[in-house]
Design goal:
Triger factor/SurA peptide-binding fold; Chitinase A, domain 3; four-stranded antiparallel sheet; globular
Length: about 725
């Protein structure tokens, strides 16, 4: 079961597109759309092919699992799941258009090239042949013994199929990427050709310092209409958010300090006794009874301890206490209980599992039979450690077995089961023994030991600094007073009132329904706020009040704008394009002034704008002019006749007027063949994602999610 073990032990391998669901209805699914409107089990279509709720939920679940394993937030993955499904449908459609079919023969012939298998030598024999039959046999065995495991394989297989289809599609399309001789020659000419120019630059930033230009909403709209592809917009909402954190007051802080000081040096006994953290004889029980964080019965390195005591712990005596001290939002008193060096151990093991144990999937032997086998192997290895590898075939741990049974170097802090760690800590180099754990019987051989760093066992008495009921009530009062002040008011009033009272304000201008998180906020209420904002009953100017569970924080939200699918709302993208539009308006003014002056030379233009004439050498492929990349200026330099004054050129950083003095050729190394290969390789590397984006932009992609969620009146989880 080694190969399937890899799949079960690495859920991230399911990353990609999950199984295509087959929905069973008592009536034709298409008829549901006609009778009830949108079928709630069909969330969208890609060129007519359905995306079902089941496959969407499967994909989202996989992404959430992956995020959890990597220690990342699990929310905000809805849109990523959707995009993965859309792209996988597009790849499948292109695969089939090219005349390919995902048959059994195709799948098994191509599986060895998938990323899951290609770089793992355990899937190949000594001659480099893929172990196809062995994998098939293991899957059949899995089908008989584990319904859950087999279903996991089916999802994994669907992910592999999409990757194989993508590999074939990209290979076929990229085959047509070539570079002709004429193209390479033109590229070489542009690379080697230089133009010497004199020019005058009227810098936008300098011009705008002297000339005020206001960019209207219509100016933004005109720019968007000129660039519709750049500003295709999905549904979004423009929100105003004011956040009222329920933070502890100075009085709350003082109360917690008083409480922990009493626990540290005063009495805690209800009968009037004087037990405290200094004199207690049972530190672990005292911490468990009085601390906001549990007792940790481990030896830790200094850098794993609270930062305040890291520099003092190495010279402290057993029983010494530190504090009370403040660590982030906690008051802490620490006591050093013990210290010792932590040995590192190099070990290897053979796991003999039995039917019913966690590692016993597919195993038929009983617990008694497993112990008998383990004792027999243990005796043989103890007598002759060189025979260890002969018994690896019995091991139910495929990962370590693939490494000769080795577990590498471990310490007492390594997250192994206690029985295993106890054996490693209490036996010398060369020892072999049999240890029982929840997973079965381990034959453990200690190969080497070396002294490690000093570890410290510390009891931490911790008290969280939390807002009191009175503090939370005051926060609630402020938030409710604010929402009363802004109801029915304009967005400007909302912003001004918030800023006047120094409340935390943010303005997510293009919040998507399935973003999961709001820019500038990031609470467990974000998804609920988005659902509220996209409710079809919402209107511009609506406000709502939210309470964050667990913290008591309050949030007031204002719906400032609704962007439906189409071109972006001008004001929602003002921050992105205002300076671009302002520069274009400045360019027009500058150009009009130059034309009106009927200038005949650069000196006259320089004087007109109180600037100076400059010189530069420009190249088409490296169009740097006075430190700025200006391809339009380079193009004009090679397009204007020598000694002739050019028309005004609207560049990226200013308006230019130039005179070309001469052209020269600076021949660079490399022949036409090398250049052709280089261009082809570069273009092929850039092609894949650009082609997929173009495919997506030009496909009929229908997204019913918002409409369905609104009809159902529930938030998709």
């Amino acid at each position: 079961m080694a190969i399937l073990g890899q799949i079960r032990s690495r859920p991230w391998l399911l990353m990609g597109v999950i199984a295509v669901a087959l929905l069973a209805f008592l009536v034709n699914p298409d008829s549901i759309d006609k009778v009830f409107g949108k079928n709630p089990d069909v969330l969208g279509k890609v060129n007519g092919e359905k995306i079902t709720r089941e496959e969407y939920n499967d994909q989202l679940f996989v992404l959430q699992q992956q995020a959890e394993q990597q220690g990342q937030p699990k929310n905000g993955l809805e849109e990523q799941a959707w995009q993965l499904l859309v792209q996988s449908k597009l790849i499948k459609q292109q695969f089939e258009k090219m005349g390919f079919e995902m048959t059994e023969d195709y799948f098994w012939n191509q599986i060895q090239y998938d990323q899951m298998f290609a770089q793992n030598q355990q899937f190949f024999d000594e001659k480099g042949n893929f172990k196809t039959q062995e994998l098939k046999k293991q899957i059949e065995e899995l089908k008989k013994t584990s319904t859950e495991g087999y279903n996991q394989w089916l999802k994994t297989r669907k992910s592999i199929e999409y990757r194989l289809m993508a590999r074939q599609v990209f290979a076929n399309v990229s085959t047509g990427i070539t570079t002709g001789k004429k193209e390479a020659e033109e590229y070489m000419r542009q690379r080697d050709q230089l133009a010497d120019i004199d020019f005058v630059k009227i810098d936008y930033a300098a011009y705008l310092q002297k000339t005020k230009i206001n960019v209207s909403t219509q100016d933004l709209a005109d720019y968007i209409k000129e660039h519709p592809v750049m500003f295709k917009s999905e549904p979004s909402r423009n929100l105003g958010v004011v956040y009222f954190p329920s933070q502890p007051s100075a009085a709350d802080d003082a109360a917690v300090l008083k409480e922990i000081t009493k626990l540290y040096a005063g009495g805690t006994d209800a009968s009037g006794g004087t037990e405290n953290f200094q004199n207690t004889t049972n530190d672990s029980m005292f911490v468990m009874a009085n601390s906001d964080m549990p007792f940790t019965n481990q030896y830790l390195k200094p850098n794993q301890l609270p930062q305040t005591i890291q520099g003092q712990i190495t010279t402290a005596a057993i029983g010494q206490t530190f504090g009370p001290y403040k660590e982030q939002n906690f008051y802490v008193v620490s006591k050093l209980l013990d210290k010792k060096t932590s040995d590192s151990t190099l070990s290897r093991h053979i796991l003999i599992a039995y039917k019913g144990s966690p590692a016993g999937e597919g195993v038929t032997r009983s617990k008694e039979e497993a112990k008998k086998l383990a004792d027999s192997i243990g005796a043989a290895v103890k007598a002759n450690p060189g025979k260890f590898t002969e018994f690896l075939k019995f091991s139910s741990d495929p990962n370590s077995a693939a490494q000769g049974g080795s577990l590498g170097w471990t310490t007492p802090e390594t997250p192994f089961v206690p029985e295993f760690l106890h054996y490693l800590a209490n036996n010398p180099k060369g020892a072999t023994g049999v240890v029982e754990t929840q997973f079965g019987y381990h034959i453990i051989n200690i190969e080497d030991k070396k002294p490690g760093s000093m570890g410290y066992k510390v009891a931490n008495l911790v008290k969280a600094i939390k807002p009191s009921d009175a503090t939370e009530a005051e926060v609630d009062k402020k938030a409710r007073r604010f929402i009363q002040q802004v109801q029915g008011k304009s967005f400007n009033d909302f912003v001004n009132i918030a800023k006047k009272d120094n409340y935390q304000f943010s303005n997510p201008k293009t919040a998507g329904r399935f973003d999961g998180q709001l820019q500038g906020l990031g609470t467990d209420k974000d998804a609920e706020i988005l659902a509220w904002a996209f409710d079809k009953k919402r209107s511009k100017g609506d406000t709502e009040f939210f309470t964050v569970e667990g913290t008591g924080d309050k949030i007031v939200v204002y719906l400032n704008g609704k962007q439906e699918k189409g071109l972006a709302d001008p004001e929602s993208v003002r921050d992105q394009i205002e300076i671009i539009v302002k520069n274009k308006l400045a360019a027009k003014q500058i150009t009009d002034k130059i034309n009106a002056a009927k200038a005949t030379g650069l000196d006259q233009i320089a004087k007109l704008f109180a600037t100076t004439k400059q010189s530069a050498q420009v190249n088409m492929l490296n169009p740097s002019v006075a430190g700025a990349m200006e391809p339009k200026v380079a193009g004009a330099a090679f397009g204007v006749a020598t000694s002739k004054l050019s028309n005004p050129i609207e560049g990226g950083t200013g308006v230019y007027v130039l005179v070309k003095k001469s052209e020269t050729t600076n021949k660079q190394p490399g022949d036409i063949k090398q250049l052709t290969e280089s261009i082809t390789q570069r273009n092929a590397g850039m092609f894949g994602q650009a082609w997929l984006k173009s495919l997506q932009d030009n496909s009929d992609i229908q997204d019913y999610r918002i409409e369905i969620w609104n009809k159902l009146g529930t938030q998709q989880q």
